[in-house]
Amino acid sequence: MSLLVVGTVAFDAIETPFGKVDRITGGSGNYICHSARHFTNKMQLVSVIGDDFDTNELKYLQSVGTDTDGIQVKEGEKSFFWSGKYHLDLNRRDTLATDLNVLADFDPVLPEKFKSSEFLILGNIDPALQSKVIDQMKERPKLIAMDTMNFWMDIALDALEAVLQKVDLLIVNEEEARQLSKEYSLVKAAEVIRKKGPKYLIIKKGEHGALLFHGNKVFFAPALPLEDVFDPTGAGDTFAGGFMGYLANTKDLSFENMKRGVIYGSAMASFCVEKFGPQRLKELTRQEIEDRVQVFISLVDFDIILKD
Amino acid sequence: MSLLVVGTVAFDAIETPFGKVDRITGGSGNYICHSARHFTNKMQLVSVIGDDFDTNELKYLQSVGTDTDGIQVKEGEKSFFWSGKYHLDLNRRDTLATDLNVLADFDPVLPEKFKSSEFLILGNIDPALQSKVIDQMKERPKLIAMDTMNFWMDIALDALEAVLQKVDLLIVNEEEARQLSKEYSLVKAAEVIRKKGPKYLIIKKGEHGALLFHGNKVFFAPALPLEDVFDPTGAGDTFAGGFMGYLANTKDLSFENMKRGVIYGSAMASFCVEKFGPQRLKELTRQEIEDRVQVFISLVDFDIILKD
Predict the structure, then answer these.
(1) Per CB distance under 8 Å, which residues of A are interface residues toward B?
(2) Is B75 among the domain residues?
(3) A306 and B293 in contact by Cβ < 8 A?
(4) Which of A220, A307, B148, B271 is deepest in the core (most CB within 10 A)?
(5) Residue spans of beta strands (DSSP E) within A181-278
(6) What is the ipTM of this complex?
(7) Is the model's pTM score more than 0.90?
(8) What range does the domain containing B240 cover?
(9) Could you tell me where the DSSP H helices lie in A51-173?
């Protein structure tokens, strides 16, 4: 089934303790497609770029199954640019530049053929725009997922609360879950957030794994203990892309299958951090993904038979 | 099989955002026995107390299967006293007082009947004393486990390195593993630490679970996402006590069984934090433990069948 992706397509400049790149493609929409394409070749991408964007990169996205007709190209303007420098522990980073450029007046318009997509993932953009995308759909997708960030909680909480009422799944990190819910305990935070709308909630804990909440059920997916993290940029979007791509491909929205999606998403994120930008995701094979999932299986596998 | 426990038996004063107690029993040896007794009734405790210690508490330890003949009682002296105040997030605490008292010149002497114990757990004390305990054993135990802390890495690194060569298993937290190995990545840290002696390593990640390393195998045990943590004091020792108690009871040192031990230890720690001090461990039933382990099983359970 088709997966509609709305998010940024951008250039990043990244410095980590292991090296730096001055210009590599980034953006939430870009990472989501780079990850989801390993599971589905029916992606539709809505975004905005300047005329400086690399046409080969667009061709690449098309070649792996992305319909890019929803990408607006602004002549004479520059693509969104983000620059950041990671600290030695890679858990903290300083943003050096956020040049919105074409993103400043982004107005997502869905091509007619995108309006019946069965799966929708809204990358981290202005919640008012996320709402606007949902409102353009002809039929309600089977699953609407969204990402957001602290920034929108600070400056656009009403719009954020409004879009939360329209989605099925929110994907945030620990810090964001705590700010949105005003609760420190993630169990309590999950309860508060799900009362705002989304039936499903994924809380990403970075190197500590991810939690999936639904009803009174909780699933915990570990993160792989990695020898080296090279560049964490895009890991969250890569997780979301793997998760949604897996669901769109398997067409099964049971909690059991969502757990599998979380594992595949986690596996994809563990690859993403191995090289700069989406580089590792480009060269990745299906066999490598299956092997990595096997590592996840072994990592948490134990066998206790309880007496009744 | 018998489990020899060496560690402190003390009084704690604890303040958390949820309340305070001025005087409750604590100490690593105390918590380990309170936890391990749910799995074995063949414990031997080596420690030191003043004549101010609560005799009812000693009687309680005896009643649940602890041979307390290795506890030295110093007449006219005071028991070890620790006082701490936890921050709102409960991950950080300020130590308000550390009165060593009887602990200042603790010289662990093993009663003859303790010297053939099959399992030995060395709580966090001076590494020179940990060595001294091992050297008193008549036969080498089947498993020697030890805890330690940053403090000993700072002031007694040589003694710590010496005892590490004599043990099978080191149990430390993330921060301690990083300081001891001088590596940030826990995978690399585990490699460095195991070259120092211990074949097995457990890295506790608090609310994020625990990792067990052996050979080229890694096991990840989640922590339970808890609604409320009331008092984290003693959670690490409770984990160690549950782990060692489970192994001493099952007498099986395979990696598969150690993984089960980590899950039981994690379950015990999740109970410990529900009330002040070892209170919750006192009232705990076997059925509650099995039910909690079932929650751990469900938490990480997923089902992916990979194609060959």
Answers:
(1) 88-89, 184-188, 205, 208-209, 211, 217-222, 225-229, 256, 259-260, 262-263, 290, 293-294, 297-304, 306-307
(2) yes
(3) yes
(4) A220
(5) 200-204, 210-214, 217-221
(6) 0.89
(7) yes
(8) 3-300
(9) 55-63, 127-136, 150-155, 157-164
